[in-house]
TrEMBL record:
<dbReference type="InterPro" id="IPR050984">
    <property type="entry name" value="Gfo/Idh/MocA_domain"/>
</dbReference>
<dbReference type="GO" id="GO:0000166">
    <property type="term" value="F:nucleotide binding"/>
</dbReference>
<feature type="domain" description="Gfo/Idh/MocA-like oxidoreductase N-terminal">
    <location>
        <begin position="9"/>
        <end position="125"/>
    </location>
</feature>
<dbReference type="InterPro" id="IPR055170">
    <property type="entry name" value="GFO_IDH_MocA-like_dom"/>
</dbReference>
<dbReference type="InterPro" id="IPR000683">
    <property type="entry name" value="Gfo/Idh/MocA-like_OxRdtase_N"/>
</dbReference>
<dbReference type="Pfam" id="PF22725">
    <property type="entry name" value="GFO_IDH_MocA_C3"/>
</dbReference>
<protein>
    <submittedName>
        <fullName>Gfo/Idh/MocA family oxidoreductase</fullName>
    </submittedName>
</protein>
<dbReference type="Pfam" id="PF01408">
    <property type="entry name" value="GFO_IDH_MocA"/>
</dbReference>
<keyword id="KW-0560">Oxidoreductase</keyword>
<dbReference type="InterPro" id="IPR036291">
    <property type="entry name" value="NAD(P)-bd_dom_sf"/>
</dbReference>
<feature type="domain" description="GFO/IDH/MocA-like oxidoreductase">
    <location>
        <begin position="137"/>
        <end position="252"/>
    </location>
</feature>
<dbReference type="GO" id="GO:0016491">
    <property type="term" value="F:oxidoreductase activity"/>
</dbReference>
<comment type="similarity">
    <text>Belongs to the Gfo/Idh/MocA family.</text>
</comment>
Length: 331
């Protein structure tokens, strides 16, 4: 058992944006942890966040949050160009870390974070909440049990039409904007989950926008021996956001896969099997619960999305951006 065995973990929330709000709201559904403190760049924002979510402590800087000895684990919820520095600071402060996706903006930053976590003997995980949703857990069970045979094709997409704001997070290259890191990581990570290996070839097409970021893309990941993933993402185009997994014996359909509530299994000669998740939480509670279980066991990473896999996924995103000649100004 780990050092946290027998206790309820105290979460520190680093950041006060929309995703921090969603995650903190969902902590009421977590049995092995609770919201405890928040850190912001101003005391006013921290106090407001803490009051609305019932957190006993609020700090007007990230540094103050990380210095609190009672905090067991930190959720990094800042914009993704800040993840690298924020995670390193948390690790140096001796905190276990759950970092919002994408882990970083490139694989070299992630490798540095992984190296420090290993050196300090601390837990680190990417907050890819999709992995822990019950409908996705069921999908993985169907795949593992061979219900659809050998998987040959995955089709997955995530696209939405964002309001045009050249200075906003999605369109500003200084903020790591673009479809790939914000939307595209979902289908790429889903493909990694389904095939469990690195593609042997990567092909893509991209539509670059006025501000110099990718606004729409299509990717074909070739895994060899007739296995492939057709993936799409966009920030100025609405998509169905479904995933279809085709195997030699049947198929799995996951509507709105990134926040899935249902999954259906269709095998030739059998009645369709439908799994429905009747959760009352938003869905972020499942990843927080996983972190707690790992820490209580003394694990330094999650087997459901390992650090090595996150690094592989980030490497794919790197290669795509390299092919597109897309480099952020701060890199």
């Amino acid at each position: 058992m780990g050092e946290f065995a027998g206790k309820k973990l105290k979460w520190g929330i680093l950041g006060t944006g929309w995703i921090a709000e969603q995650f903190t709201k969902d902590l009421i559904h977590v049995t092995n942890g609770e919201g405890f403190a928040v850190g912001s760049r101003t005391q006013e924002k921290a106090d407001d966040f803490a009051k609305r979510h019932g957190l006993p402590r609020a700090y007007g800087s990230y540094e103050q949050l990380l210095q609190d000895p009672e905090i067991d684990v930190v959720y990094v919820a800042t914009p993704h160009p800040q993840h690298h520095d924020n995670v390193l600071a948390a690790l140096r402060a001796g905190k276990a870390v759950l970092c919002e996706k994408p882990f970083t903006v490139n694989s070299s930053e992630l490798a540095e974070m992984i190296k420090l976590a290993a050196k300090k003997g601390l837990f680190l995980m990417e907050a890819m909440w999709t992995r822990f949703l019950p409908a996705i857990v069921k999908t993985r069970e169907w795949i593992k049990d061979g219900r659809i045979g050998e998987i040959k094709l995955l089709k997955a997409e995530f696209g939405f039409c964002a309001d045009w704001n050249p200075e906003g997070r999605l369109f500003n290259p200084q903020l790591g904007g673009g479809a790939l890191l914000d939307a595209g990581i979902y289908p790429v990570s889903f493909a990694s989950m389904v095939f469990g290996t690195h593609p042997v070839r990567i092909h893509s097409a991209v539509q670059m926008g006025k501000t110099g970021v990718d606004e729409q893309f299509s990717v074909l990941l070739d895994y060899g021996v007739g296995r492939s993933a057709s993936l799409h993402g966009a920030i100025r185009l609405n998509m169905n956001n479904d995933a279809h997994i085709y195997g030699t014996k049947g198929m799995i359909h996951v509507p709105s896969f990134l926040n899935a509530r249902t999954a259906s299994l269709r095998v030739e000669g059998a009645e369709e099997e439908v799994f429905t998740d009747d959760r009352t939480s938003i869905g972020y509670a499942f990843e927080a619960q996983e972190v707690g279980e790992c820490l209580l066991r003394g694990d330094k990473e999650s087997s459901r999305i390992s650090l090595e896999e996150s690094l592989t996924i980030m490497g794919i995103l790197d290669q795509l951006r390299d092919d597109w000649k897309l480099k952020y100004p701060f890199e």
